[in-house]
Amino acid sequence: MQINFHPQVLLTQTRNGLTELEFSGFIVFCGKNKNIKTIGTTNRYPFFQRSCAKPMQASLIADFDTKNYYSLTPEEIAVCCGSHTGEPVHLELLRRLLNKAGLSENDLKCPAVPPLNKEEQKKFTDYSPLHNNCSGKHTLMLLLCKQNGWSTDNYLDFNHPLQKLVYNRIQELCETDSQLPATRDGCGAPNWALPLEEQTKGFLNLFCAEKYSIIKDAFLKHPYLIGGHDRQDTDIITHTHGICAKAGAGGLLSICNLNTAEAVTIKLIDADMKARILVAIELLKQLNWADKNSINNLLNIYSNIVTAENGEYVGRYEVQFQI
């Protein structure tokens, strides 16, 4: 597909007053009346959802009453919706979930890769599929297959009944009947692309619908299980009130304000994670989605100051947009 989008500079990094780096991308805002505002010209170019799709994929549990079928706790639902850091609290929940369905980590089709948490990486020489940050999503997919009598051997096939339902749910939530470009995510699961406008609508429709309140509640009550240590979505949820957030690879971050029934998606073209979170914090400020104390708490974690290696101040990140 020919590239016809035009990102806007959202953030710069300066040293001694001179601009050294620019970070370009898009911001798409969706109001409760589905009015859309964009920064940067998207031309409705489709971007892959990556891990921002996880809560949408997990929403299938509302169709099959999976919560009651397996007596799922909010903690178990949360770890299935997130991109966890592979800490003991995450792995113990996933083992418990697999055991509920008579499964084991050997049934997971996600690769065995090091956990995102660097301290946990040091504890192992061999890794399990459970360490994969997507193993929560894969575990829930397996549970849905067992519940419905579908094959667990090929649950990642695009034509598997589960993946067909996921595809239909994404179209439904994102209010589109267009054929969505497909790929495999890093973990091997099917992943689809759609315009950022539709991704943002989908996030709003998911988190503001009573039908999927168990997903919303899991995010709000257990943000550490959505990510973990040093994860941007975890920190946003933890330090705000009534805000759900999910980060994805490729510079994506979707945020929903449950208090105002509004949502926003950020896409950083170079996928710089520091720039992405600073753009997100500024959005929380400009949209009045977070109070001064919440903003300060987040900036204490993700400083907008540039220092030399000895800690001396040399510059700062500067916002270049107004929503």
Looking at the structure, the CATH topology is: Beta-lactamase
What is the overall shape? globular
Briefly, what CATH class? Answer: Alpha Beta
Derived structural class? alpha+beta
The whole-angstrom Rg is 19 Å
Major sheet summary line: 8 strands, antiparallel
What's the number of helices?
14
Distance between the termini: 29 Å
Q: pLDDT below 50 for ≥5 consecutive residues: which ranges?
A: none
The strand count comes to: 11
Short description, anyone?
The protein is an alpha+beta fold and 323 residues long.
Fill in the keyword field for this structure:
3-stranded antiparallel beta sheet; Beta-lactamase; alpha+beta; 8-stranded antiparallel beta sheet
Per-chain topology:
Elements: E1 8-15, E2 18-30, E3 36-39, E4 46-48, H1 54-58, H2 61-64, H3 66-69, H4 74-81, H5 88-100, H6 118-121, H7 135-148, H8 161-173, E5 182-184, E6 190-195, H9 196-207, H10 213-221, H11 223-226, H12 232-238, E7 243-248, E8 252-257, E9 262-268, H13 273-286, H14 292-301, E10 305-307, E11 313-319
Antiparallel strand pairs: 1-2, 1-11, 2-3, 2-9, 4-6, 5-6, 7-8, 8-9, 10-11
Helix pairs in contact: 4-5, 4-7, 4-10, 5-7, 8-9, 13-14
